[in-house]
Structures are given as C-alpha cells and as structure tokens.
Amino acid sequence: MRDETIPTHCPYCALQCGMNLRGVPRPDTADGTAVEVVERPDFPVNRGALCGKGRTSTSLLSSRVRLTGPLIRSHATGRLEPATWEEALRTIADGLRRTRDVHGADAVGVFGGGGLTNEKAYTLGKFARVVLGTSQIDYNGRFCMSSAAAAHNKAFGLDRGLPFPLEDIPRTGCVILVGSNIAETMPPALRYLTELKENGGKLIVVDPRRTRTAEQADLHLAPRPGTDLALALGLLHEVVAEGRTDEDFIAARTSGWAEARAAAMAHWPELVERITGVGVPQLREAVRLFCDAPSAMVLTARGPEQHSKGTDTVSAWINLCLATGRAGRPLSGYGCLTGQGNGQGGREHGQKADQLPGYRKLDDPAARAHVAGVWGVPPESLPGPGRSAYELLDALGGDVKSLLLMGSNPVVSAPRAAHIEGRLKSLDFLAVADVVLSETAALADVVLPVTQWAEETGTTTNLEGRVLLRRKALDAPEGVRSDLEVLSALAALLGHEKGFPADPEEVFQELRRASAGGPADYSGITYRRIAEEDGVFWPCPELDAEDEPAAHPGTPRLFLDRFATPDGLARFVAVGHRPAAEEPDADYPVLLTTGRVVAQYQSGAQTRRIDELNAAAPGPFVELHPQLAERLGVAEGEPLAVVSRRGRAVGPARITTGIRPDTVFMPFHWPGEGRVNTVTNPALDPTSRMPEFKVCAVRLEPERVSGG
Ligand SMILES: Nc1nc2c(c(=O)[nH]1)N[C@H]1C(S)=C(S)[C@@H](COP(=O)(O)OP(=O)(O)OC[C@H]3O[C@@H](n4cnc5c(=O)[nH]c(N)nc54)[C@H](O)[C@@H]3O)O[C@H]1N2
Ligand SMILES: Nc1nc2c(c(=O)[nH]1)N[C@H]1C(S)=C(S)[C@@H](COP(=O)(O)OP(=O)(O)OC[C@H]3O[C@@H](n4cnc5c(=O)[nH]c(N)nc54)[C@H](O)[C@@H]3O)O[C@H]1N2
Ligand code: SF4
Ligand SMILES: [Mo]
Question: Is the backbone peptide bond immediately before 671 cis, with ω within 30 degrees of 0?
Fold first, then answer.
C-alpha cells in the first residue's frame, strides 16, 4: 500500500482512537512495504492523540512476533508442530464433531472476545447456534462491563455504555468518576476531564488509589475496595437529608423512588464512613459539588463494577443520578466506560450466552423468530441461554469437552487462573485462533493464525455507541487467514456451505437485518455512511424510503425524551450494601485489588511482544503503603508474595503513599509467578455473573532471598 494513507482505528481499547496508516518501504517484507501510524487529527474522539500502545500497534504486524502458520499438537512429540490449513481445519471440524456425536451439542463450547469486530462476534454467535447447535457460548466481556450492562438494562431498559458522546463531558458541571483510571487506560480521553476543569466544572474521583487520574481531581475519595455500594447509598442519603432531590424529575420521569429512598435511608453517613473509610465531611463535600452544578454526570469503570455486587453498585450510582435529576437531560447522565476495542458491539450481536443479534434476548420468542428468519432456520432449532464465562470455563473437562476459542487469553485473565488453566488442559479438544501464541493458545490441540486489524476490514462500536469502520490497509503474511474465513471454512466442513460468508461487508449486511427492530438497531448503518460521518451512533434504524426519504441520523444522545422502558420511565432499583464475598480475617488480613498500567494491554498477549512497551512496563509489581511495608519489613523492589486461599503471585514491592494502608494493588498483564489471577476470587455477581476481580483477602509474605 505504498503512497497511500488509510484512515482506521486502533486495535486495542474502547476509545477506538482514529489513526492513519501509511505505507512505507521495508525490504524485509514480502512485497517490500510495511505500514506506519500517522496522526489523524480530523477524527473527533481523540483528535490525533494516541497512547503508546496505539502508536506502536504496527509492530505486532511483523512476522517476528506473530503466528504465521497453523499448528497441530503431535501425538508423537506432544508438541505443537506446523501443519497445513487443510489439516488444521479438518482436525478442528473432526474434533468438534466427535464431541457432539458422543456427548451431544452442549458438550461443545465456544468462547469469544470483546476485541472481535461486530462481524466476527455476530458470525461466532451464529456459528455456535446454527452449526454447532450449542448453548455453551460466552465471552470475556462478561469479565468486563456485564455488571454495568445489567444495571443499565434494569434502570433504562437499554444498555449503551455512554448515553452521550464524550464531547459532552467538558460542558457538564460536575463529573463523579468512579473506579476509572482513565489517565492510564484511555490517555487521550483525559483531555475531556482537563477541559471540564478549564471550563469551571468539578471532578470527583473515587478510587482506593491516588492514581494519575485521581491526581487531577478537585476531590478524591479513597474508599476501601468493595465498598462503593455503601458510598453511593451514603451520598444518596445525604442528598435526601439536605433536601437536594429533584422531586419534579422523580415524579415525571422515574418509578420506584419510595423503595429506593427507603433503602438509602438505612445508610446514614457515620455508618458509611465506618464501612468505606471515607469521612463524613468528604461525603458532604461530594454531594455539595454534585448538586450545586447545573448539570452532572456519574461515570463508572471496572473499579466499582468487577465485584460480586457490581450490578447493585451501579444501580446505586444510577439512583443517585435519578434522584437528583441528573439523567435523561442534556449534559447529565450515568455512563459506563466500556473497555475493549469492541466492548460495546461485542455485547450486542450474539456471542453472549443469553443473547441474539441486535441486543435481543435469546429467551424472547419474538426475538428468536426474527433472528431465525434471517438465518433461515426454524426458531425451535435455536438453543436456549448457556452458562456465563467463568461458569463455562469452570465446566471445561466436565460436561463441556471441546472448546473453540477466539479473541481471549483466559490462562492469564480469568479469575482463579490456575484452576482454569487446569480445566483447559483437561479438555478432550481445544482449538484457538489468535494472532500470537498466547498462553492459552499454547495449550491448544490446534492453533490457527489469524489476520489483524490493519489486514482486514470490519466494524467496531466504541464506548460512546459510535459504530466505526476499520479498513484493511495491507495484505496479511502468507499462511494467515481471517477469523471470518476460519468460521466460513469450518461451517462448510460441518455441513453448512451457505450462510457463513467470509466477506465482512456481506456479514454486516446480514447483521443489519438481524439487528433491525432490536434495541441495538444497526439497520440504517452502512460502511459508506460510517466512512462519511466519523461513525454512526446506534440505534440507527433504516427508514422506510417512501415515508421518510432522509436517512436516520443515528442517536448520539439517548433518553432525552423518554427512557427505553415500556412506560418510558427510568426505574429506581432498591439496593442495600453487603460485604465482599471474601473479607479480611486473621489469616488473610489485607485487601487485594487489581487493574492496569498504561503500557500493557489486558493479558499482555499482544503488548508483551512489543519492545518499547516492555521497556516501559517490564513486569508485575505489588503496590503497597509505606506503613504496611514497614510492618512487613519489606523494602522497595524486594520480592513480595501475595497469597490468597487460591494461590500466590509474586512481584517486587512498589511502595507509595498513594494507596490505602489496608490494600495492595497488582496489575494483571503477566503470566507465570507474577500472575495475579492465580490469587483472585471467582465469586460471581448473582445478576451479571461478573467475577470479583477487584477485591479479595490476602496475606503478604516477603520472599527472603536465600542466604540474605
Ligand atoms: N493501558 C491499558 N488500557 C486499557 C486496558 C489495558 O489492559 N491496559 N484495558 C481496556 C479494558 S478491556 C478495560 S475494561 C478498561 C478498564 O479501565 P479502568 O476501569 O480504568 O481500569 P482498571 O485499572 O482495571 O481499574 C480502574 C481503577 O479502579 C480502581 N479500583 C480498584 N478497586 C476498586 C474499588 O473497589 N472501588 C473503586 N471505586 N475503584 C477501585 C483501581 O485502583 C484502578 O485505578 O481499560 C481499557 N484500556
Ligand atoms: N485480575 C484482573 N483480571 C482481569 C481484569 C482485571 O481488572 N483484573 N479485567 C478483565 C477484563 S475487563 C477483561 S476485558 C479481560 C481481558 O482479558 P483477555 O480476554 O485475556 O483479553 P486479551 O488479552 O485482550 O486477549 C485477547 C486475545 O485475543 C487475541 N486477539 C486479538 N485480536 C484478535 C482477533 O481479531 N481475532 C482473534 N482470533 N484473536 C485476537 C490477542 O492476541 C489475545 O491473545 O480480563 C479480565 N481479567
Ligand atoms: S487510548 Fe486506546 S484506542 Fe487510543 S491509542 Fe491508546 S489503546 Fe488505542
Ligand atoms: Mo475489559
């Protein structure tokens, strides 16, 4: 692609920053060219800015670090050996068919990812239900935003991460940012918060750590991990006590206030201070800033959501917005900052256990009939809802005997990871499609090397609900095929010659029809429109050409007239505080929380292969307060083991006053002895089935260097 500049989007997080790819001569590649990233200042979300991951993203296109041919595990050596595509695909088709024939369709599992394009997520869900006939499909988004999604649906009748574009943030009066370290997880978006402050707006950050994001705040509340539910209820209590509710809004646009109010009134400030460690004066200051502002937003990310009570916690934050009239109005509302590249679209088109395309429900007869019609199968042939991600992984080797996995690396990223690694090893058959030999791919019987973002076209939906087009900029190396080609070929080998096109635009046309009339309606969106309009916000129904000749403009702002519930009213959900699934005790006296650093992405499968990023973030660490370090007798940089009932993870101590003395923090990007998910608790939220990544009880053991 020499001498051309192709606009596209970053392969990593949900901000989906716009970037341009330009061809450059590179003698060591097949056609003598490679691509480099250049600024794309005209794209509104990031206006040219990129973080280090986006800037270095083309390094992963090099065949030095990626898979370039299929691998099959040899019976003779037990090792993965090079194979042809025909052998690899046939081995997978045979493996999945054998399991189905012997143990039934539900013995075959499928695991997807929120990084997959809409076209891939849609095809994977269809492949599971139509070709394999299995109910056992879920994906890593369950580990990400499922709690916020559940609370969104309860309150608003619709789940789109942000109900407004990011550009609204600088113009609101106050933002409460809860458990989001945007400065490290979406650096170009920090600008929106800086502009908010420049415009006189207030920023409140809620995080047990004084992160680079919290440093920007006018007010930083540092609750004990796992107590956001009490905090939000305490704020609501104070709102009521101070007479700062918006009674007109409550009456006109909500239902269920009496019960929610009663539940909140049980959380008086002194009790909340005891639970959270946040002082009463700080609670009052937060309420004052939030209620004095002419408009206000609450934004949550994984901090309050990845808990066994994440759904209720988000409901409590939504209640705060509703009680103060900060929802369904311009420049006000609740939003969740979704995480993965297609974290939003990936949860809409059917790779989730209970879902059909267009964010339809698998147990809704009308939804089944519509989607079955598009797929050309009888509605009764569609299986029912399956298990959630952790429950599916936990069932591997039990009643799920074979697994097809695309776009996730659970050996590193699943909770109680040593157990899940064991489950994966106990499978009769595991097939993994990936761009690199991830820790999970390394366990597979067959590994398929797939194309990457710059080598294929497809759509993603960013955290704002903006559907975007990633364009193919260069050919993949020989020996690599796309996920859609893989699914198309496997479908054919399993008796479905038709219905699984490998061409992304053809898939998108079908997705449009399948989503038509559903909550996430994409039917009015086309590749051409996305390209011309900097993306299109769903819902975007296709208008009847005769009645309404103009195209539907898309919906950047939701709920301004009515909420998406049957009666149009937002629903309060009455919730009360409860402790974490595992609270500290004499044996495990310290709280562990986990998260991210700016230079690594997720399980690290991609970013740990990039020199510049590794230099910036070479390995895991254990962040702890000087008081705790002193008590343990551990010095900066010394190895420290973090031990829970599930196992241990070791990293060098990183001592900082920016964390609560009762809490340690580890990032989760690394495998091996520094894998924090060996330690984390898989306790699940009863509604969203989200695991409790953000809090468990641990003990700390300084690892004395022998002889020292
Ligand atoms: N560099 C980088 N960027 C990423 C990713 C990445 O892996 N690396 N991943 C992407 C994805 S998929 C996601 S989901 C997003 C996640 O984005 P974030 O949610 O911003 O990331 P985390 O670091 O997981 O968690 C955010 C903060 O929650 C705090 N926290 C921990 N426990 C609690 C608690 O109990 N209550 C509260 N209020 N806060 C708590 C942590 O201290 C942390 O600072 O990032 C996306 N962007
Ligand atoms: N302790 C702890 N654990 C966590 C979290 C936490 O905060 N703390 N966060 C959780 C969250 S929010 C998330 S989202 C998960 C993420 O954790 P994972 O699901 O492991 O996410 P990734 O590391 O992005 O894995 C994606 C894999 O798919 C590959 N890949 C990328 N693009 C494609 C593609 O187009 N096709 C195919 N076939 N493969 C592709 C990548 O190379 C990589 O191996 O981790 C969860 N785990
Ligand atoms: S913020 Fe996210 S989308 Fe933007 S460059 Fe960084 S990783 Fe890519
Ligand atoms: Mo995520």
Answer: no
Distance 200 CA to ligand 2 centre (A): 38
Q: Does some domain include residue 547? A: no
CA–centroid distance, 154 to ligand 4, in Å, is: 21
Confidence at residue 8, expressed as pLDDT on a 0 to 100 scale: 97
pLDDT at 550: 74
Residue ranges of the chain with pLDDT lower than 70?
Answer: 1-3, 28-31, 545-549, 705-708
Which ligand 3 atom is at minimum distance from the Cα of 185? 1
CATH number of 636's domain: 2.40.40.20
Q: Are residues 108 and 87 part of one domain?
A: yes
Q: Can you give the pLDDT at residue 63?
A: 83
Task: Specify the pLDDT at position 30.
Answer: 66
CATH of residue 82: 3.40.50.740
The predicted pLDDT at position 32 comes to: 73
Last residue of a domain, one of 537, 556, 580: 537
Regarding the beta carbon of 228 and ligand 1, being less than 6 Å apart is answered: yes
Residue 272: CATH number of its domain? 3.40.228.10
596 touches ligand 1 (CB under 6 Å): yes
Tokens of 339: 């995480």
688 lies in the same domain as 594? yes
Number of domains, the chain:
3
pTM above 0.85? yes
Pairing mode, if any, of strands 570-571 and 696-702?
unpaired
Q: Are residues 324 and 413 in the same domain?
A: no
d(CA 249, CA 433): 50
CA atoms within 13 A on the CB side of 33: 15
Atom 23 (ligand 2) nearest CA: 603
pLDDT of residue 708: 43
The strand order across the sheet containing 71-73 reads 80-82, 71-73, 446-449, 429-434, 402-406, 108-112, 137-139
Q: Which residues line ligand 2 (CB under 6 A)?
A: 113-116, 140, 143-144, 302, 306, 339-340, 406-410, 412-413, 433-436, 438, 450, 483, 594-595, 602-603, 605-606, 668, 676-677, 680, 693
Whole-number pLDDT of residue 241? 98
Residue 102 has φ and ψ, to the nearest 5°, of -85, -45
Q: What is the domain extent for residue 95?
A: 71-143+342-537
Q: What percent of the chain lies above the pLDDT cut of 70?
A: 98
